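Support request, please re-run this one:
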Amino acid sequence: MITNLFVGLFITLIWLIPVLIVVAIIIGLIFLIKTRLISKTFKIIIIAIILLCVFIMLYNYKNETIDNLYIEMKEMVDNKSLIGLSEEEVIQLLGEPRHKYTDRENKKNYTYSAGKIFKEWFWGICYSTKYYQLEMEFDESGKVEYVYITEST
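Re-run finished. Output below.
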């Protein structure tokens, strides 16, 4: 019970950090604009520098998490290690495919889940998850001819 309370408090604090930073910057900018001790040109230069720094900081702060399944599947595609394998060898290596279908050219196709990439910006406030799938096409003799990874829709 207490652990859940601390986890909730921690998540709330993570959300509050960027909000507090933005509020502090806004208060600083208002103070800077209102003060008469600094010339107007110097104020404009300082505000421009602060806004540029904030923009660069927020734009560059990204966290990307790639799961192990995606890494393994990407390595297999890049190394072309699946090319030439039979259907049985593919199933033995990767398990049953998520989808089996025959395309317009009468070639078998298998689809496997290829993992996901989780991207997070602004300390977790904005995030996206992209899911990927491994597509493979077999030739007439039942050997893998093409393998590629696409984003799932």
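The longest helix spans residues 2-34. Residues 64-151 form a domain with the Beta-lactamase Inhibitory Protein; Chain:B, domain 1 fold (CATH 3.30.1450.10).
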